[in-house]
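Practice problem: predict the structure.
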Amino acid sequence: MTEWKAVIMAGGSGSRLDPLTRAINKHLLPVYDKPMIYFPLTTLMLGGLRDFIVVTAPKHVEQFRAVLGDGSHLGISIEIKEQQRPGGIAECFRICRAELEGRNTALALGDNIFYGAGLTTLVQRGLAHETGATIYGYEVTDPSAFGVVVLDRAGRPVSLEEKPKDARNGLAVPGLYFYDRHVCDIAATLRPSQRNELEITDINKAYLEKGQLNVEPIGRGIAWLDGGTPDDLFEAGQLVRVLEQRTGMRIACPEEIAVRKGFIDVDFLLRSIEDYPESGYKRYLRDVVAGIEA
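Answer:
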């Protein structure tokens, strides 16, 4: 059985969110009631992944350790690795090469937010492809703001472009990717782009040229947002607030997912939250336990 490791890319300067990001990493900013990093973390946890690396800038390492710990309270493992300067998404494969050796990699961008009833299935579709690479295609009004994949009539990928000027026939590529064990070798051959970064699109192009790029469509039942600008962050927070208040259920709650996936049991969860401050979040987790034990 293929062994998978999860990487969450949480580097970058967050310049589009200045001055919010002068003292804190943007991936730790709130999306309504939780840090943004909880969303990619729980997306991958829903697929059953338990072995994580978070890549961030050196000055933010302690911030992530304070928020995430080592993952043991969730029944998972979280390691923090440093990206010395913003060198592009694909640089994570060079930074984490020793840890990824011989394993497949699930990569999520720290500012990408997914929500929907089919999210677990979405991740499992990526994990089902043990060789090659799997990316997703999402219909948006203006794909030119994103990396874009163009499909032929049979649904096979024929080209990839990064923020093209004319992308009327393409699908946006969200920040969720699955790669086989050869991805680090591919990353080692990349040259920096004009932005002086290692581009994730170039990784995907390498798999496309080998005929090993799989594209999974994301249907209307799953929402995809990001938190890259103040407007994006505000809109994502509004969505989460509305859904949580109407359903009474918290979105992207790692403790709840951990206990429902069987990573931890209810007794362990109750012990682990004893030191949490008294808050609506703690009360919710107690209600989750009560519901499971009922």
